Amino acid sequence: MIELRVLSYSHDEERIGFTDPPRATPRPINIGERAGMAMLATGAFAFVICGMAGVRRGSWPALIASFGLITIGGCVYYWRRWAGSTPGIKHDGNTFNNVQTRGLWAWGLAIVITLFYIAYYWYHELKAIGMPPVLDGTIRLVDPLSLALRGKPADQWFMYSFLYTLAVLIFGVRMVMKYRHNRYHLIRTASVSFFQLGFAFLLPGILVALHQPDHYFTYFWPLSPQPLWPGDGYGFGAGKFHALADKGVMGMFILGFSAFMFLLATPVLTYLFGKRWYCSWVCGCGGLAETLGDPWRQLSDKSTTAWKIERWMIHSVLVAIVLVTAFLWIDYAQSGAITGTWAMPLRKVYYFVIVQVFAGVIGVGFYPLMGSRVWCRFGCPMAAALGILQRYFSRFRITTNGGQCMSCGNCSTYCEMGIDVRGYAQRGENIVRASCVGCGVCAAVCPRGVLKLENGASSEGRYEGVGGPLPQLVHDLRNPPVAQQAEGPARIAQTREGTR
Amino acid sequence: MCHAAIIGNGIAGITAARRLRALRPDWRISVISGESRYHYSRPALMYIFMGHMRYADTKPFEDRVWADERIELVRDWVTEIDVAASRLRLHAGGTLAYDKLLIATGSQSNRFGWPGQDLRRVQGLYDLIDLHTLTENMRDTRRSVIVGGGLIGVELAEMLHSRGVHVTMLIRETDYWRNVLPAEESAMVSRLIRHEGFDLRLETRLAEILDDGTGAAWAVVTDRGERIEAQLVGLTVGVSPNIDLVRDTAIKAGRGVLVDESLRTNVDNIWAAGDCAEIVRPHVERNLLQQVWYTGKAQGRVAGEAMAGVETRYEPGIWYNSAKFLDLEYQTYGDVRPNPRDGERHLWWEHADGRKGVRLVCDSAGVFIGLNTMGVRYRHEVCEGWIRDRRSIDDVVAQLPQANFDSEFSRRYESEIAATMREQTR
Ligand SMILES: Cc1cc2nc3c(=O)[nH]c(=O)nc-3n(C[C@H](O)[C@H](O)[C@H](O)COP(=O)(O)OP(=O)(O)OC[C@H]3O[C@@H](n4cnc5c(N)ncnc54)[C@H](O)[C@@H]3O)c2cc1C
Ligand code: SF4
Ligand code: SF4
Description:
heterodimer, A: mainly alpha, disordered C terminus, B: 5-stranded parallel β-sheet, 10 helices, globular, binds flavin-adenine dinucleotide
């Protein structure tokens, strides 16, 4: 006989799911967290006051009172918040938390970040149509820093890059505390913070102070195409090639560096380490996603449909950037006009749609709604190129530990790239996917120690018996992804080098 | 057309269904299960409750797979198997005729007849029904008592703790899970449990659960006569095969549904797999009752083949398992007993922080037979290879670095471990 309790059970798990269980006692908030929050609030208040007041010239006291307090407060808060729990994965309540589950707060936050991006990206355009000077006040606030670093007052780009760096650093502290039991994450977070602070913030500033072109050394073609587009740098999304070529040694160095990174360093490093060397260790977009974006990584869509859309979109953008670049040079060769003639509108459209709207506004503004890597997954041409290299010409893979997977789903849930990691792990297969940025979170959250990011001895073992990279590419083009057909063999994975 | 019916959409039933589909594209396959429409990962129950994942995230396959593979899912309870007529009676009404049947009904939580065990707010943790009940029970719960110190007990404790409920654990043994874990591992976990703030009562049994006058629990009494307040009592004292359906039928059952090595019951067109199956093997005295995920998966595969009429046999292979106690990961491979048997040698290394340990076990001839790791990840394939190839303990100690599976940049302890082990083998 089956118990009545069982027979009468009729909860609809599909529609209702399982709700937030009541708490017996509220989570204790320790004194450090309170202090951090108080500093944050004070700093935010000072920021708003200064912004509203439309200060004419910033001062160190005002800067310290606003951003100084925000930074220290944020860091103290996250430090004490996580120090209050034992080292280990602590994802309690993520699926109940309003701001992490596309609740009202998430929408509010998404709107705020989006407006922020719009305000900074189209600063001049908006001013021309009468945007109130609230932003000017906040920009003036960082003048002292800009003067000290670059020898000239701040502009909206300096402000933007300052805020970006702060976000990476403050949420970097959160990341470090959250994953402090895992050295891969500690070192990786240190790396993205270092590249953001050093190469995307300090170095461009120093270059300006030395009257050199303010180049961001962590971005290259095709992600940042301007240095390799013909042009003198003036005008909307204009190329900078000629401007740089005129800038003497430094300009030539920048051009040489861009070409070297794209042509040589990228394939070699990707062969050795996978695309992660860039996407989750160096890149600024990745850096922000891996720090500020971490609370929302579980929002990425894991469906096969999303994977198909991803394949189309990201490779279309790669094709677009190749074409736009080629057309600009053809145009230049034909007409001799560095500003371009017929190809100019293409450049403008690409710049507006892809670089500004997609990478910036959607890429970051939609963190709380679509997860932290929307741009990296669906739009970034650099990720597309790196992905092709990673899939076909790399040693990198995620190894599955034999038959240990119990299909819990933590890995897939927390994969920011929407990879169904579990789909491979439960079949005992290694994960070799173009989109994997090697963040290492799937391996960290797996409660059974099933996954390990590794550089194998060679690129073998990723061609599924079709022979080599090219036949595999053809095979993949012919066979779009399908929902897993696995009948779930209990086969033990071959984790030895070169087999999978 | 042959109709294969499968009772239970757990890992065993679902693996069988998919294997069968691969082998028999033209059969009709139905999976009947009362707990949920779709297959989900039972070990992930705790993560739903703690808010790490939504229920939907614990489903190992996309919903579309079932339509793609033409596997019919029926959410209902089977209330009776009519063996003579090859027909199932369903709770919501109606019957379902089958040509071949697989019983994969899993387990049930044990209850040992304690006074008060049927009160409200006394529960186990096995399925979504328990999860649902627990969520409701949380409303009135400030303090809880968990009886039993196995894997599910510590998971339930962690779940309650994550919601601010005070937890007392009553454990019969001298240390946490000491009937399975060797002394040092057991002590390590006990230490962590205490560090987390749980009240761990060792060598203590439940005597009685007290009624608050409304039919719900409010306290327990231990065999030492102590009374402990608890609005929620978790009974996690192991599970037994769920054989409700085969009682009073022609299908033979012992502790579980009795099957041969191809997982066939005594009835010709009925098989059983997973937690509910008890495998009778020729020339082996002890029947095989395996109640973990991995064995359910392996048995499901064999059951699918057997139902398809393919020659097949379930071979248990080298044992392995893994678990996580709070923040501490545990893996085991091969034959590691809680206490060394005659002539067996146990070598143990423990890190100074008390959160990592490795145990190597060899028989009297120095042949390596198994290992445990705590807080360190090892490679399945390498460990299994050592056991299968009957490597000497000295070889294994020398080759330890090959087995490490910790993430890149992790500190490695293999040379320290090897040194400790060599000292002990000398
Ligand atoms: C909380 C918890 C954590 C666990 N963690 C781990 C772990 O980490 N690692 C590990 O290896 N194992 C773990 N296990 C054990 C593992 O989940 C089981 O061994 C495995 O799920 C058994 O699979 P199964 O297919 O045999 O049965 P089940 O998964 O129990 O499936 C049986 C299904 O049959 C259905 N059913 C039963 N009777 C009827 C009926 N009369 N009519 C219709 N349907 C019926 C039920 O709805 C149920 O869905 C855990 C178990 C629990 C409860
Ligand atoms: S598969 Fe793992 S390492 Fe790769 S992106 Fe996803 S979570 Fe990160
Ligand atoms: S690989 Fe790990 S996290 Fe992913 S489903 Fe398997 S057990 Fe869970």
